[in-house]
UniProtKB/TrEMBL annotation:
Family: Belongs to the nucleobase:cation symporter-2 (NCS2) (TC 2.A.40) family.
Superkingdom in the source lineage: Bacteria
Protein name: Purine permease
Transmembrane segments: 21-43, 49-67, 79-96, 102-122, 129-151, 163-183, 195-217, 229-249, 316-338, 344-361, 373-392, 404-423
Topology versus the membrane: Multi-pass membrane protein
Amino acid sequence: MNAVLYRVEDRPPAPMTLILAVQHLLAALGGIIAVPLVLASALHLDSPSTIALVNAALLGSGIVTIIQCKGVGPIGIRLPCVMGTSFTFVGAGISVGMEHGVAGILGSSMAASLIMIAGSFFMPTIRKFFPHTVTGVVVAMIGLSLTPVAVDWAAQGMGGQAYGDLSSLAVAGFVLALVIAFVQWGRGIVSASAIVLGILIGYAVCVLLGVVDFAPVRQAPVFALPKPLFFGVSFPVSGIAAMALAYLVTIVETTGTFMALGVATGVDISGKALSRGILCDGIGSAAAALISSPPVSTFAQNVGVVTLTGVASRHVVALTGVLLVLAGLFPVLGALVVTIPQPVLGGAGLMMFAMIIAAGVRMLGKAADSRRSSLIVAVSIGCGLAVTMRPNLLAQMPDFIREIFGSGITVGAMAAVLLNALLPGQEREPVHEEFPVPENAEAVERSSC
């Protein structure tokens, strides 16, 4: 991992802040847009409805990102945390939407978010189940689960006829080499913005080669106002139950992501900090439903950006939230980012996600060297990878089982927590002091000086 160039409370110069914020935007935007597009396709929505859903997702993600980074009273973890629509909710969302439409998805999400809001108050207790060994497993599983995504990007998308095309792999390899070079030999802003520089150069090369499709830019509206309750809301009991399961899974995944973010930023994540972050996820998802957005959660891929670049400033990522809001209001901006070829994103993504794995390995290296720890690590990562690499493993299981255990991160985390609790000689986690959080703008200024 790079040394931390900018700590959580640091404020880089304005031009650098903008470049670094764009870097996080490029890492997150594709994932944020993908969820509403998948839902729209599955539910056969018309073009205006699809545009409204995408715009709402960008707007909701941006607003909750700002709150998560800056904090509002007891809400928000106040770390460089990008929020976005989550694939954890796609399965439940499609099943609810098929019967009750988008209104059922939004209403179910709003009602079921109470699970996450209530769960936030138990995070100080839950934090005790995450000593070094368990946290290391979860951080490593986040990287291991995301790496196949980057590989598919590099190979031009799973399922396509061009998958593994040599030219696509060459572009991805070129971008990967650029990012490595910028991180290793760059200084200052070059090293800190290695990802955005690699993507921009790779994108420019693809434009020169004539492989960039600008149709999304031509088709996207320049400006679009948000449309609260555009689809309406309804509260089917079956839909609320399905979404509640997805929120339970999200609590586990988000806890792991926050722990990984703590490693990347050099901040000890206390139970109170987890409570503020999870509370923001829950309230943010409920508020997002009011503006017609699917539920939001913490984006693990942006932890890779922090890990790789050493830029841990929450103020940088808060600006990313502002850019997401602008992308929601000016869809043409988001459409321009969507034109970046997948192999370009794959080259940068492979580096980002692999760095998360490295962070997890370093954490495991600090854990106790014992047969007990080895068992926890081996079984947990093995179970997590089984689901990640062979998702059809659960194909014959009931829907609620697939909903809970469909994520390798969740399976790995649950296995590690369970083994750590059951095996004799439970690892003791040192007591962490609550990291200081400014209570007002003046305190922020003082702490950043």
